[in-house]
Amino acid sequence: MKIAASVVIYNPDGGVTERISSYAGEVEKVYVVDNSDTPDEALLDKIRSVASNIEIIPMHGNMGIAAALNAALNRASEQGMDYLLTMDDDSYFTGDTLKEYFAKAERIFASDDKVIQLGIHNSGDKDDDLVVNNENPDWLITSGSIMDVEKSIAIGGFLEKLFIDEVDREFCYRAADKGYRMRRVLDLTMQHNLGAPIKGKILGKSFEAMGHSKVRKYYIFRNCTYVMKEYPRVKKAYKHYLFATWVKTILAEDDKINKLKYMRMGRTDARKGKFGKLEV
Question: Rounded distance, CA 245 to CA 241, Å?
Answer without folding.
Answer: 6
